[in-house]
Design brief:
The protein is of the alpha/beta class. It has a seven-stranded mixed sheet with strand order 3-2-1-4-5-7-6.
């Protein structure tokens, strides 16, 4: 059976190459791009940069001279991101925790990606480490208390039943859901001021079942890095 990381490197990354343009610039993504631009960064680092579209591409379009860096575990997506953004250096193949980045950035973000990552809290701590004082860390999660999570859990029970009676069901890695409450507590423990927005709040959607995302925008004050002002 294919390991989860290999699935994302091979099968999912090729699927994403075909699908990425179809998603377009939905209201939720436009809001995220606007929040990143409001932080007025000269340099950004994107965890899970994918093909570079739409976030990095739009930042590049909206802010002249912005320095874009990022990483992704799928080499095929990294190569596409380099072509999309016309960048040779600063986009890395690999997970953030494996890269030991030594540079600091004005804004570090990870959006529409955390649900493919195990132990995302360690990713957030590393994002904090590579972000400058007075910079911003921006990320989103799928809330474990959302109705979407409940829907997927019921779907998994249904799939298990079909397998039990001998009907094949296409397998795919499970999405990772995180507790918004635990995320808030972690940020408080890290001494990070933050604001949190719900996906329905941003998109104005009335769909309770398919809007599980929580967006966190955190200000790096220096306290979480042990910096004395």
């Amino acid at each position: 059976m294919m390991k989860e990381e290999e699935y994302y490197k091979e099968i999912y990354s090729r699927f994403w190459l075909k699908q990425t343009k179809k998603y377009g610039l939905e209201k939720y993504v436009k809001f995220i791009i606007m929040q990143i631009l409001k932080s007025d960064p000269n340099s950004v680092f994107e965890v899970g940069i994918g093909t570079g579209w739409p976030v990095a591409s739009m930042l590049q379009k909206k802010k002249q001279g912005i320095q874009i860096s990022g990483c992704d575990i799928a080499e095929i997506l990294v190569e596409e991101a380099k072509r999309t953004l016309n960048i040779e250096d600063g986009i890395y193949t690999g997970g953030l925790l494996d890269l030991n980045i030594q540079k600091e950035y004005d804004t570090c973000y990870c959006v529409r990606t955390s649900w493919y990552i195990s132990d995302f809290q360690n990713i957030i701590k590393e994002m904090i480490r590579i972000t400058k004082k007075d910079g911003y860390v921006i990320f989103d999660i799928m809330d474990s208390l959302s109705l979407y999570h409940l829907k997927l859990m019921l779907s998994e029970i249904s799939d298990s039943f079909f397998k039990w009676i001998g009907i094949e069901v296409e397998a795919a890695p499970k999405l990772k859901f995180y507790s918004a409450r635990k995320m808030r507590n972690m940020l408080k423990n890290q001494k990070l001021p933050y604001v949190c927005y719900g996906e329905r709040q941003i998109s104005k959607s009335k769909d309770f079942f398919n809007t599980p995302k929580k967006l966190f925008i955190c200000k790096i004050t220096g306290k979480e890095k042990g910096i004395v002002s």
